[in-house]
Design a protein that fits this description.
This protein is of the alpha+beta class. Among the domains are: 100-138, no CATH class; 143-247, 2-Layer Sandwich (Tetrahydropterin Synthase, Chain A), CATH 3.30.479.30; 262-334. Helix content is 53%, strand content 17%. It contains 13 helices and ten strands. The protein has helices at 28-41, 46-58, 60-67, 79-98, 174-179, 184-201, 205-209, 213-228, 252-321, 323-340, 360-372, 374-379, 385-393, and strands at 101-104, 108-114, 117-122, 125-128, 134-140, 145-154, 160-171, 235-246, 345-348, 356-359. The strands form four sheets. Strands 3-2-5 form a three-stranded antiparallel beta sheet. A three-stranded antiparallel beta sheet has the order 6-7-8. Helix 6 crosses helix 8 (213-228) and helix 9 packs antiparallel against helix 10 (323-340). It is elongated and about 180 Å long. It is a single-pass membrane protein. HflC and HflK may interact to form a multimeric complex. This is Protein HflK.
Amino acid sequence: MSQNGSGQDPWGKPGQRNEQKPENSSNNGWDANQNRGNQEQSPPDIEEIFNNLLKKLGGGNKKSGQNNGSSAPPPSLPFNFTKALPIAAVLGAIVWGASGFYTIKEAERGVVLRFGELHSIVQPGLNWKPTFVDKVLPVNVEQVKELRTQGAMLTQDENMVKVEMTVQYRVQDPAKYRFSVTNADDSLNQATDSALRYVVGHMTMDDILTTGRAVVRENTWKALNDIIKPYDMGIEVIDVNFQSARPPEEVKDAFDDAIKAQEDEQRFIREAEAYAREKEPIARGDAQRIVEEATAYKDRIVLDAQGEVERLQRLLPEFKASSELLRERLYIQTMEKVMANTPKVMLDGNHGNNLTVLPLEQIMGKKMESNKAPSAVNSTPVLAPSETQSNLTQPTKVEPVRQGRFN
């Protein structure tokens, strides 16, 4: 110990003086060797590292104090702070890493900003981002949004009309939707209003209120797409619906009457068309039936005439051979045909002025009916002989039956 001029313990901490001797001086060397071996095998103490760092940062003041033999201990950090600092750093790293996990819904896409600049587009699911470095903006790309616009607009014929229209759209490109324009929804609203005013300004008020509603819708849709195309806002217009168009309140009643009259006109036209569609097939069927009946009648007459000619041609040789006999035969055949369709009455002229009439046609008709319906004959009343005789003796008025030419 005397060899060390400064009186400092070689096995102590730097700057610490050896003012107390160990109680057992005989074991001093062995204990010093053991402590030195333990220090070589054990890891360095964090507190000692910080103390050495502070001593080095202190500079000459610490060194001059040691030369003067000052026994004041060097300043050191609190024990709790130095122990908790690495633990806090590890916990902070864990919290920072865990805070970077986020979820994107199925209908959304995530727009990633790295230090405020567009970096990428993330898909639905669980994702991770470095906190305080990246920022994620979720954008719904499947939701159909609706935009409504209305206002009083001037028509081509310098009339005012109040128009309402809705536009259905959805986001097609999330990055362009967020950064192509300042506010895509507001820009689409202004573009819709501009397109609607342009279309209404090129049409008359009567067309807008009556028959031109579909034209206003189609033209507005086309004009809106032409307006938003240069801006490339990442929006897709799905449909444009023309809600209503109203005239000013001062002339609203007159326009309502005009619209009602036009609707009645269309209704009457549709009713007339329906009636025509109902009657036209019937008329065509009747006309076709009449034509077919006339054609059949013509064919029958022609065939009858041809048959008569053929029959007379066959009789011509017989007529040349025996004309009187053939003439009598033809007369008898003709009378048979005529008398077959003529009512026949038998008269008895031997009783003076009283004529006895026998209606053969009625008797023959009754017999034919009795043959067709035997059961009906049993139910008919039977006339007495006197009644039968009176019926037979009474004169019967016979009306001539007009026969057709070809019957």
